[in-house]
Amino acid sequence: MDIMSLIISLVSGAVGGNIAGALLKNLSLGTLGNSIAGVVGGGVGSAILGSLMGKAAPAAAAAAGAAGGMDVNALITNIGGGGVGGAILLIVVGLIKNAMSKPSA
Question: Do the domain assignments include residue 39?
Fold first, then answer.
């Protein structure tokens, strides 16, 4: 994963975390918390999805890299994996936070 792919994954993760926080108010961690959870989840989610999807089209990635262009498949994988990973991590952290904040009986 090159630096541009990493930046795209982290930014899309932050966006995914904030969108999930806006849609699921009870799981929101605030703007900063949503962004941090999204960035971490975006990096992890994109790496996982990239390792699963990356083996599908190595010839296309090599051709795009040789031509100096950006591989569209890799871009979509980074954005999708980052956004979904950020949203999933935000939901998991929000659920844990809510479970810990409930008073014990």
Answer: yes
